[in-house]
Amino acid sequence: MARAYNFSAGPAILPEEVLKQAQAELLDFNGTGMSIMEMSHRGKDYSAVHQEAKDNLRKLLNIPDNYSILFMTGGASTQFSLIPMNLVGEGQTADYINAGAWGTKALKAAKKLGVKVNVSADVSKEIPARMPALENLQFTEGAAYVHITSNETISGAQMKEFPETAAPLIADMSSDILSRPLDVSQFGMIYAGAQKNLAPAGVTLVIIRNDLAEKSPETLPDLFQYRHMMETDSLSNTAPTFLIYMIMLVTRWLLAKGGLEGMQKINKEKADKLYAAIDKSDFYKGTAVPEYRSTMNVTFRLPSEELETQFIKEAAAQGMTSLKGYRSVGGIRASIYNAFPTEGVDVLIGFMKEFEKKNS
Ligand SMILES: *Cc1c(COP(=O)(O)O)cnc(C)c1O
């Protein structure tokens, strides 16, 4: 059975080399006679994995020393609540830039906790999808933080630059973490669910400036506190060891590929080709404003929903799976994360040309 060209938005494709390595070590990790998932999270073999995962991330993203790397659970969605719980002080307001479905969820989670929220910009319902212009954003003086979603996975709009803010900038980077180089010092905190660009689902990466982590109220449950997670190196209870091991393998793979500059170049080439194929035709229509088009989630429509259904079905029969857009928006979404091979993009483009010829 050949590997599918898996365009899933998440859980998403993982590098084949990484899966093979995990398979090879599955029964016997490092001559221990057991799998990495069967051993203590406090033993020396696992400790080396935990450390390497962090070291690789620090290298790839050039993470400064005054930031901590945390491995948490509950997905990015849990962070939507933990951020306000940890970081909004007495009487403070939290600012949100809402650019789509994920930004809306983050905002709602804060409101649910009774936090005072200010929406600095809202482009969440605009079609074609976009990110807000960075001028004229309405920030609150003394805000606890400004929250953004760097890549709206559902709409296919991506921030190309980040706002300059007086308050700490917090970014949900679930669907574009490690897809391009970043200046981490621009952010107070970055977080990402693993299942798009990092590892299988079940672990959440948090990169947080230490002075912010220190703000966690003592009254919060320990495992909800950034400070506690920082002080215990994410090992106060049993860590999701296999998933952190997968992060280690994926980050090793990225370093071997030339780091994030190398990855950004490949990602741009893949996305540029696919958008060019869309723009060349009158049959396909991109659904994000060109300057904000995501390099990770390429969204487009066909002339009718019937044709979209047929497109998805015929593509699947040729080994191109999960091209259906998110259930609430429809259309086509080709997610082409780091691990998605360039060859798969070429195959999709070839199929698109054939499909257009037959159906227009
Ligand atoms: C997938 C996704 C989430 C949700 O992640 P979970 O780990 O399922 O909670 C949040 N934000 C963005 C941008 C996403 O793409």
Description:
The protein is α/β, with parallel strands linked by helices and 360 residues long. Helix content is 36%, strand content 16%. The protein contains 10 helices and 14 strands. It has helices at 16-24, 44-61, 75-87, 101-112, 210-213, 226-231, 241-256, 259-280, 305-317, 342-359; strands at residues 5-6, 67-72, 93-98, 116-122, 146-149, 151-152, 157-158, 169-172, 189-193, 204-209, 285-286, 297-301, 320-321, 332-335. α2 (44-61) packs across α7 (241-256), α3 (75-87) packs across α4 and α8 runs parallel beside α10 (342-359). The protein is globular. The relative contact order is 0.17. Pyridoxal-5'-phosphate (PLP) is lined by residues 10, 75-77, 102, 149, 153, 172, 174-175, 193, 196.
Short description:
This protein has helices spanning 16-24, 44-61, 75-87, 101-112, 210-213, 226-231, 241-256, 259-280, 305-317, 342-359; strands at residues 5-6, 67-72, 93-98, 116-122, 146-149, 151-152, 157-158, 169-172, 189-193, 204-209, 285-286, 297-301, 320-321, 332-335. It is α/β, with parallel strands linked by helices and 360 residues long.
Strand content: 15-25%
- Tell me the CATH superfamily of the largest domain: Type I PLP-dependent aspartate aminotransferase-like (Major domain)
| CATH architectural grouping of the largest domain | 3-Layer(aba) Sandwich
What's the order of the H and E elements? EHHEHEHEEEEEEEHHHHEEHEEH
Bound molecules: pyridoxal-5'-phosphate
Q: What is the overall pLDDT average?
A: 97
Assign an overall shape.
Answer: globular
Main pleated-sheet profile: 7 strands, mixed
In total, how many beta strands?
14
Identify the strand order in the major beta sheet: 2-10-9-8-5-3-4
Number of helical stretches of at least 4 residues: 10
Helix content: 25-40%
Low-confidence stretches: none
Distance N to C terminus: 33 Å
CATH topology of the largest domain: Aspartate Aminotransferase, domain 2
Structural class: alpha/beta
CATH class of the largest domain: Alpha Beta
Return Rg in Å.
Answer: 21 Å
How many domain regions?
Answer: 2
